[in-house]
Amino acid sequence: MTSLFKKILIPATALIALASCDNIDENERYVPVDRVEPQRVVLLEDFTGQRCNNCPDAHRIIEQLQEQYPGSIVAVSIHGGSMALHKNTTRFDRNQVALGTDEGQAYNDAYGIDEWPSGVIDRRSGMLGRDQWAAYIDEELKRPTDVNIEVEARIEDNDIKIDLAVEPQADINGSLNVWILENGIVARQIDESGKYNRDYVHNHVFRACATAHNGDPMALTNGIHKTASYTVPLRYNDQERWNPANLSVVAFISDKNGVHQTVLTDVSTNENE
Questions:
Q1: Cys-Cys link to 120, which of 39, 45, 214, 250 (CB 3.0-4.6 A)?
Q2: Residue 203's closest CA among 58, 51, 96?
């Protein structure tokens, strides 16, 4: 935690599914654009669902974008709406894992998402189909940021301990959001054929908020550092079984005009790191 604390010393039914998903011609799914030099980390809120047959294609597009801009795109897959399977339907004894949450549903409703997959980029774009993501992200990466965020997260006694340091280069009256994500979740997903793939691997899945649902208020003054800390209990129950080795934390500062900056960090499971 050396870098962080040096910083703070200065004052992130199949038919119904087929009918409700957003269909895009295969040739229009992902059109690479000339690579720009990123000036920020872009947040992509990917609204998805296990009953959405087009969502696996959107997941591939996210992978392609992240390969094109390594470390500059943070994706969060939020399961909500009619295509999602709520976690209260999980049956581990039947190998039926559901990834929808009440918080994910609330985000879906707040944006008015009614087609899946859909994405919202840096909370500035409004609802976009997956064919629109690349071009919008390309432009968003060109915008300079006016705040730096450092995050460190670790497991301690079955809790996730999170420490943040925020360094603004402008006055910002916004909010801080801190979310828990998980990679590598094997759970069913309807694929393009309309059939469930029960060995599908879900990544960057939204699991929980560490902050309030709409974020914690954070008024920032140019040049004045702020810090924050959070504790989130690990979940291992009949509805969710988090794998500590696959958890990460995303934090972002936003206001009414959108996201100022985003950061993603893995959760350390080694207390000696």
A1: 45
A2: 58
Mean pLDDT of 149-153: 98
Say which range, 24-38, 144-158, 232-246, has the weakest mean pLDDT: 24-38
Contact 65, 93 (CB under 8 A): no
Strand partners, 226: 166
Buried b / exposed e along 6-34 (16+ C-beta atoms within 10 A): ebbeeebeeeebbebbbebeeeebbeeee
Using the 8-state DSSP alphabet, how is residue 87 labeled?
G
Name residue 3's amino acid.
Answer: S
Q: How far apart are CA 76 and CA 50, in angstroms?
A: 15
Percentage of the chain modeled with pLDDT above 70: 86
The residues, any chain, with a CB within 8 Å of residue 253's CB and separated by 6 or more, are 147, 149, 166, 172, 174, 175, 176, 218, 220, 259, 260, 261
Q: Which residues of 237-259 are buried (b: 16+ CB within 10 A; e: fewer)?
A: eeebebeeebbbbbbbbbeeebb
Q: Does the pLDDT at position 141 exceed 90?
A: yes
